[in-house]
Design a protein that fits this description.
3 domains; Double Stranded RNA Binding Domain; alpha/beta; Purple Acid Phosphatase, chain A, domain 2; 27% helix; single chain; elongated; 359 residues; six-stranded mixed beta sheet
Length: 359
């Protein structure tokens, strides 16, 4: 019986908020996932797409990716899916199939080569799939065609697609997924970054989203990052191995009160979080001047990769009013003072432009 590791959505080369440190975070998470997977001595390691974030990745990220995958392929088989971030243009071109040319143990699943069969312990394990396909009709046609070729001792479907109810828009309906599910012993997909069972087909075939190794947005702050491992053909009972991704927190609140109270609440949230990446969104019903809300949080950026504090005024639909405000030199200088912008050069430039063009 085989041991198979599935690693999904590593997104090497993604500069979250244009931060160089995030390049390192994604590389670190990817390398840790591979190291932990190899330590379990799997017979096959499957990468479920979006291994890199761009169809033409930067040289450092490409080198990191290639170096690790080549090392894995020296001692075991590697199967690769092609994700949406790895495909460019209307022709659907991608570098990914080249991985299959650099080592005989690396196999890339495409429409032209939708399967690979690998012998483990006297049994044949078939891995089936194709590149990410955006058009629903085309994706479902490819899926049905792939299912018809599933004739190994153990048949595993490996995809990078959105299924109905799990992402919108989706490329594969649940009815189509249930139709092909009996052809496979296991279904595992990338693309959705939160690890979870696909319960709508689990009564027919165990099916899972693998999850990602690092978070690409604050909407994923609550996700656990890691990869899946299946042993002894226990397809309904995988092991989720966590990866130490960068700490991330997303705080969303509603507030009602005066600016000074809001400033104290914001400081409390920021000072109370140890996350390397912190986003705070507050919808504020304020009694007072909105410009008195603190804007400058640079004093708290030390040790963080991203700190984003946003305050949005709350308006009831019927209460929205547009008030004409007369622009003046005093108002411009008041704005700089209340927003904490200490650049006198910029302030004087704005005043000078107002004098020249705004009167």
């Amino acid at each position: 019986m085989a041991c198979i590791a599935f690693i999904g959505d590593c997104h090497l080369g993604f500069r979250h908020r244009n931060k160089l440190q995030r390049l390192r975070d994604f590389a670190k998470a990817f390398e840790e996932a591979v190291e932990k997977a190899v330590a379990l001595n799997p017979d096959v390691v499957v990468f479920l797409g979006d291994l890199v974030h761009h169809p033409k990745p930067d040289p450092v990220s490409l080198r990191t990716c290639l170096k690790r995958i080549m090392a894995v392929a020296k001692s075991r088989h590697v199967v690769m899916c092609i994700g949406n971030h790895e495909i460019e243009g209307h022709l659907g071109t991608t570098y990914s199939p080249l991985f299959g040319d650099v080592h005989p143990s690396i196999h890339v699943l495409t429409s032209e080569n939708p399967s690979v069969k690998i012998g483990v312990g006297g049994r044949t394990y078939g891995f089936f799939g194709f590149e990410y396909t955006r058009a629903r009709e085309s994706a479902e046609e490819k899926l049905r065609k792939t299912a018809r070729g599933a004739d190994a001792d153990v048949n595993i479907l490996c995809l990078h697609q959105a299924f109905e109810k799990y992402l919108s828009p989706h490329e594969v309906s649940l009815s189509c997924l249930r139709e092909v599910a009996p052809s496979f012993d296991l279904i595992v997909s990338g693309h959705v970054h939160r690890h979870q069972a696909i319960r709508e087909v689990s009564d027919v075939t165990p099916a899972f989203y693998c999850g990602s190794t690092e978070r690409i947005s604050f909407n994923e702050a609550g996700n656990r990052n890691g990869f899946l491992v299946f042993t002894d053909d226990r397809w309904a009972d995988p092991r989720f191995v966590e990866v130490n991704s960068a700490t991330m927190a997303y705080v969303r609140e509603e507030f009602k009160g005066i600016p000074d109270e809001l400033n104290r609440r914001l400081e409390e949230i920021v000072k109370g979080s140890e996350a390397k990446l912190l986003k705070v969104d507050v919808i504020a019903d304020l009694s007072g001047d909105y410009m008195d809300v603190r804007r400058d949080w640079t004093a708290y950026e030390a040790g963080r990769t991203v700190l984003d504090v946003s305050v949005v005024p709350k308006f009831a639909g019927e209460d929205i009013r547009l008030e004409r405000v007369e622009l003046s030199e005093d108002l411009i200088r008041e704005y700089f003072q209340k927003t904490g912008n200490t650049s006198k050069e910029l302030e004087n430039l704005c005043v000078e432009l107002y004098r020249r063009y705004g009167a």
